[in-house]
Amino acid sequence: MQKSSSASSLGPGGLDLSQAFFKPIQDTAPPSPTKRHTKISVIGVGNVGMAIAQTILTQDLADELALIDAKPDKLRGEMLDLQHAAAFLPRTKIVASVDYSVTAGSDLCIVTAGARQNPGESRLNLLQRNVALFSKIIPPLAKYSPDSILLIVSNPVDVLTYVSWKLSGFPPNRIIGSGTNLDSSRFRFLIADHLDVNAQDVQAYIVGEHGDSSVALWSSISVGGVPVLSFLKSQQIAYEKETLENIHKAVTESAYEVISLKGYTSWAIGYSVANLARSLLRDQRKIHPVSVLAKGFYGIDSGDVFLSLPTQLGRGGVLGVTNIHLTDEEVQRLRESAKTIFEVQSQLGL
Questions:
Q1: Is residue 210 helix, strand or coil?
Q2: 331 phi and psi, to 5 degrees?
Q3: Which intervals hold domain Lactate/malate dehydrogenase N-terminal (predicted)?
């Protein structure tokens, strides 16, 4: 498939008319070398990949967007569909190819390619179908964009983030999994719904595996700056632990529910990943629960494992992990979640 872009030549024989159409002013200087050209590549143009691409475009996060997929017809169709919306979007150059050279010079590479999760299928069961695929994706991305940040979205995301780290040879600060960023958003929504407040006023994290062994950090939840459990205790307001567990259960099952109803998830993960892209490329230094190399944190010492922890993100990728206080029970559950992931990835032989 020929590389296509949003630029075109209208003149006879492919003549570029842009120089004839505009007359330059005299004594011009070249653009400032400090002006940054931001390029994002999205690998995989399925439902998730296109939701991410669409959100990146509408939020004006990149000067250039490169799309990669193994299916040339679908790839070109998706590229053209986005290009045809140019009049309604911020100006972004859109290119697409089955050849990974189109990703060269990317600041951020977002990997969504992988087998689709089937209804009722756990994320960990997707592993063997996706590891082989990643061996063909990650090395060329590292070759053409050696200074980029890799953001892994494909499931099981924690193990595949580890796989990407091994295959790329990148330092761990430039390997990030989307992790529980979306789980935490679902968590905040459910808590806000219970309390009838805006979800943006709820501070709450899901950590650990993006999956069944995830851990809800109830001890650190706050609403409008008020620690929820401490407030309930000080006001002698009774609550049942089962109620808290049911909310967490609803978080872990929410993706399965969406998949059973519409066949896939897309829009929420699209917004989640665009939110991460903004923090990374615009050096926002915001805290996100994303999958990072967790060895050495909270007593996780079973080996190299990636799982979600509250992490500060910026232009350099992972800037640090928040030293958030966990209860003994939360620490134990986090270590068990790490063990679950490690036992799976240890079978890969990487």
A1: coil
A2: -60, -45
A3: 38-177
Distance CA 224, CA 111 (A): 35
Contact 334, 208 (CB under 8 A): yes
**Phi/psi at 347 (5° precision):** -80, -10
Half-sphere exposure at residue 309, Cβ-oriented, CA atoms within 13 angstroms? 29
User: Which residue ranges in the chain fall short of pLDDT 70?
Assistant: 1-24, 26-29, 31-35, 116-117, 122-125, 236, 238-240, 349-350
DSSP conformation letters of 193-207: HHHTS-GGGEE--EE
**Joined tokens for residue 238:** 């009774």
Report CA Rg, the chain: 22
* Structural element, H or E, at residue 68: strand 64-68
pLDDT value at residue 200: 93
pLDDT, position 174: 95
Quick check: is 210 catalytic?
A: yes
Among 56, 55, 157, residue whose Cα is nearest residue 108: 56
Catalytic residue among 37, 84, 194, 210: 210
Cα 302 to Cα 7, 11, 131, 161: the distances in Å are: 51, 63, 22, 17
Widest CA span in the chain = 80
CB burial string 154-183: b at 16+ within 10 A, e below: bbbbbbbbbbbbbbbebebbbbbbbbbbbb
Measured distance CA(199)–CA(196) in Å, rounded: 9
Residue carrying structure tokens 């799976």: 344
